[in-house]
């Protein structure tokens, strides 16, 4: 995996796009208005974005887009799986502080986009 080329786990452009669009698109979005709650970027937000991405993938499972409702009943187990995976990743890469570096990079990039 290549850190500089953003080709490793949790370095997808989709994650960045989700953060930018949902919380940092303009000066009235929550990520800007409530910046103190987004610094450091909560792992729970990354898990949520990954869950939404998975919902989008599910919508295209047949090759034709089918509208799927994003509900707690359907996607809370998916969210919890992503949250557990992120916590595991953080524990196993703790000596390198990789998850912190990834979240810092995501947050710094959102600031550039929203400026």
Question: How do the helices and strands line up, and which of them pair or pack?
Answer:
Layout: H1 13-23, H2 30-33, H3 43-59, H4 72-92, H5 98-114
Q: Could you estimate the helical fraction of the residues in percent?
A: 55-70%
Could you describe the largest sheet, including whether it forms a barrel? none
What is the CA-based Rg, rounded?
A: 15 Å
Span of the ends, CA to CA = 30 Å
Number of helices: 5
What structural class do you assign from the helix and strand content?
mainly alpha
- How many DSSP E strands? 0
- Unreliable stretches, pLDDT < 50, 5 or more residues? none
| General form | globular
Mean pLDDT: 90
Order of helices and strands: HHHHH
Quaternary structure annotation: single chain
β-strand percent reads: under 5%
């Amino acid at each position: 995996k290549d850190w500089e080329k953003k080709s490793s786990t949790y370095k997808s452009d989709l994650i960045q796009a989700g953060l930018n669009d949902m919380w940092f698109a303009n000066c009235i979005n929550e990520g800007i208005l409530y910046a103190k709650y987004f610094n450091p970027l909560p792992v729970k937000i990354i898990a949520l974005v990954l869950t939404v991405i998975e919902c989008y993938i599910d919508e295209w499972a047949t090759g034709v887009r089918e509208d799927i409702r994003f509900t707690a009943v359907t996607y809370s187990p998916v969210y919890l799986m992503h949250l557990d995976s992120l916590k595991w990743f953080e524990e196993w890469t703790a000596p390198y502080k990789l998850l912190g570096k990834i979240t810092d990079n995501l947050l710094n990039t959102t600031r550039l986009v929203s400026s």
